[in-house]
Amino acid sequence: LLYPVLEELAARISSSGRSIDQELVTGLIPLSPIQQWFFTNNSGNSHHYNQSILLQSKGRLSEAALRTALDELVLHHDTLRMVYRQTAQGWVQENLGREQQYGFEIVEVVTPENFEQHCEQVQSGIRLQEGPLLRVCLFRGAEADRLLLVIHHLVTDGVSWRILLEDLGNLYEQFLSGSPLQLPLKTDSFKYWMQQQLEYSNSTVLQQEEAWWSSLAIEPHPSIRIDNSEGSNLEKDRASCSFMLDEQLTEQLFTRCYKAYHTGTNDILLTA
Fold this sequence. Notes:
- The protein is of the alpha+beta class and 272 residues long.
- It contains nine helices and seven strands.
- The chain has helices at residues 6-10, 33-41, 63-76, 112-123, 158-177, 190-201, 204-218, 247-261, 265-271; strands at residues 27-29, 50-56, 82-87, 90-95, 103-107, 134-139, 146-152.
- β5 (103-107), α4 (112-123) and β6 form a beta-alpha-beta unit.
- The longest helix has 20 residues, at 158-177.
- The radius of gyration is 24 Å and the shape is globular.
């Protein structure tokens, strides 16, 4: 970085003033480098490479509220409507429009054995060519429900899950309260991001750097120094150290730190 100090970097930041399109994103989208790697190196079942979350409710969930929230979620987060087709030239990524929905089913009270089996069926039922890449299953219980959400890893990751769950929860509560369904404005689409990557990868600026990066790849580099050259380097010999804060310090961490420095708990812990 030319300006590794935040104070210096902040002085050189300017607003672009560009407005972000809020319409549905559709059409063919270039594969990202990691997506290309996935299709080139994945020797297993490409369809069954997903992430899932199982939520437990405190009471009965409203099917109407859940469906309405999911409808809005899929329209807002365009990549949830993605499909992938294998052609003679390789894999093609296409963002479908409003017609592409999500998988949804309701299962009444089941035994633990049947529950696990059905979860496996939901997770293994994704098909990249047709989609949908989001599948939802509502398990009805005697007093409370469980909600299984499954999304293919090509279109979600750990950070994305937090955003999706927050949006889903807000939409669900808005429906129950009779409020208008509203989410934050869309950020730049995945399609725009990939177009910018391709443009930059073919730019003169990057081509001028190619020789320098290539030279780094062929130069030998010393191994990282280790703390104990005589150590066994075995998992069984690993040790950890932990401690607990008392009630008074915990209370100060959660309340008084913020008042004094306008920081969050995570900021303090990371600093420590």
